[in-house]
Amino acid sequence: xxxxxxxxxxxxxxxxxxxxxxxxxxxxxxxxxxxxxxxxxxxxxxxxxxxxxxxxxxxxxxxxxxxxxxxxxxxxxxxxxxxxxxxxxxxxxxxxxxxxxxxxxxxxxxxxxxxxxxxxxxxxxxxxxxxxxxxxxxxxxxxxxxxxxxxxxxxxxxxxxxxxxxxxxxxxxxxxxxxxxxxxxxxxxxxxxxxxxxxxxxxxxxxxxxxxxxxxxxxxxxxxxxxxxxxxxxxxxxxxxxxxxxxxxxxxxxxxxxxxxxxxxxxxxxxxxxxxxxxxxxxxxxxxxxxxxxxxxxxxxxxxxxxxxxxxxxxxxxxxxxxxxxxxxxxxxxxxxxxxxxxxxxxxxxxxxxxxxxxxxxxxxxxxxxxxxxxxxxxxxxxxxxxxxxxxxxxxxxxxxxxxxxxxxxxxxxxxxxxxxxxxxxxxxxxxxxxxxxxxxxxxxxxxxxxxxxxxxxxxxxxxxxxxxxxxxxxxxxxxxxxxxxxxx
Length: 489
What we know:
By secondary structure, the chain is mainly β. The protein has eight helices and 33 strands.
């Protein structure tokens, strides 16, 4: 199956049908869900999800925008079953119909939030496009623009209502606007915006909801016009990047509180604890390189506090005199014991024990490339953490370009998968070798007893060897749901 239809591209219907065929072929919902008679997709609780089967395949979008390859982005299926003859190989590629979409994150048509509804089935992967504003499964940007006055789409989450909600970074012209597109989960018709008319946040990016506390919290990156061609430090000085969390009333669909983040610049990925009764979580602030904990007060309002700070490194040979870690992705284990995050520029991946969420304890750290490796263009002049610059990472003969970025944890918490591409415009600016050589997918073994991270030296998926040229692989998804796709209610 080469993934091509008439004139060499998929029709919209073909993409939808093939996604369903891939699902049925690779792993059925019945084999993944804990059966309870008549139940819906996923698992009844996060702890039950930890008992789910080992992952055998992974879906991840691969991007060609800002590379030398004039080809559509595509969805790759990677075999991660060690017993398979195709282990660590891309076993299928599904190209999109158009060029320069910039696929980024993805989500499911339904998830564990619908576990109690036996009429729901996890059969469709939703792929929003960060630049073109298309939604594959399959919605043209004009419909999003016309019905919602939104564009530049990012996070997709399924809701307990059976609907799908997608966050936006801006309006169709690329101005800042943090609204949410609402889709019918069966027909995928664009229903309009989730928020009340005129009630969008000033900026948008990621979001997470916790219905038992009648709350959703969203984050901020920047206006699409600010970020689409690269990073300009002057835009930070001009206040064009985000520094707030927005607290929403889940039932009324309106902002009830805005939380300024002290020393918190560019809050990106946000995670409530998986326990649906928990009234706290964490957000990773990329540029200021800290983790902030948000929590509900006794009076019902919300507050935020910084709990982890990654110190910058004084450097020579870089665009600024100090280099931040740049926390670009965070993840919580399903038992809410460990927090993981990536420092894309410094090049390290960290594990923290969050048994006491107010005082996370570092339990694991591993360097996987980055901008400060020995022999590179950057010289570290002063470092509060390291005595010397880390060695470049070589896996199975491949020197890894870029740094650890998107991460995904196995259900049992014992394997962490990592990709190295952030966003094509920033990849091109900060890691030009990544554009030429393509990104990689790595696997880290996790010690879930004492804590600790160890590279699996036998696992490498090299997207620099793709048939049409080096590609930039991004977010990872398992067919049956994972630590960042599913929300429990």
